[in-house]
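Suppose you are handed only these lines of text.
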Amino acid sequence: MRIGILTGGGDCPGLNAVIRAVVRKGIGEHGDEIVGFRDGWRGVLEADTVPMDLHAVRGILPRGGTVLGTSRTNPYAVDGGADRLMATLERLGIDALIPIGGEDTLGVATRLADGGVRVVGVPKTIDNDLDSTDYTFGFDTAVGVAMEAIDRLHTTGDSHHRTLVVEVMGRHAGWIALHAGMAGGANVILIPENPFDVDGVVAHCQHRFDSGYSPIIVVSEGAKPKNGDLMLSTGEQDAFGHVRLGGIGAALASVIEERTGREARAVVLGHVQRGGTPSPFDRVLATRFGLAAVDAVHDGQSGVMVALRGTDIVRVPLSAATAQLKLVPAERYAEAEVFFG
Ligand code: F6P
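From them, the structure of the protein bound to 6-O-phosphono-beta-D-fructofuranose can be written out as follows.
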């Protein structure tokens, strides 16, 4: 078979492990030909391809980023985009497509599958907010990076008797903040799902100072206060209509400094969370997803996404995975709240 593969949306540690697994299993076990599309859906729109043979995937398992490149190109926001996608796939004789991405990339995949293209999606996002899978690869690595930062910030914060506010990624879902904050012993964790009370945050900081230590606040970039007056975004939007966020950490640090009378600093972890080598968990999960995607293609499946349920890799309808985001449930947040203050 001729199988197309692409990586779309924000890059994520483990993308190369999926690509390698697809190529190794597709070529090694089935004699497939694997065609890589460069930079996500842009590569399909423009028929920009790269042959993915065994040589192309040598040594890429531990490498962060994606050897195929990525973009946030939304083909349905481009004039004639839908027709151009179909024309490329037909002209290149692509029998099946394996798009690796989050809600946006797989949303496009869902529409293509509805239109008759054989598509098997692979879930990717450091945010872990794709529905129908217990975990996406990339999340574990991002949490590890954030946790290490929090560990380091504890000692400098305590030395200077100041609050440190750590802003992590997470536009709509607070999974990174929740897990990194819990693993790193944060004194407050703020997530988009639970608008926060500024007075409560300040009280937790004060309590932490009273106990002789300095507070560490972990805040998702998309977290908002209850009264909404700290909400920040640049106003810029990407092709899928997402606003570019940023600044909640700095805004919060300034309020905390003013209200506690002690210095506060903000640290924005940003893209450091997405770069670099994947963790062992992510390498294994990504590899298993890649193998399972090739199996699904050869089983004649379409309109499905490979997913992790417990320790099993299963197939779920793409439409179910992209219908809504997987948010942090209230009971998971309540577990973290036990350690606030
Ligand atoms: O891919 C998800 C994500 O990392 C979000 O957590 C974050 O809001 C966004 O991407 C950042 O996008 P960009 O890389 O375009 O700045």
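What can we learn from it? The mean pLDDT is 95. The first strand starts at residue 2 and ends at 7.
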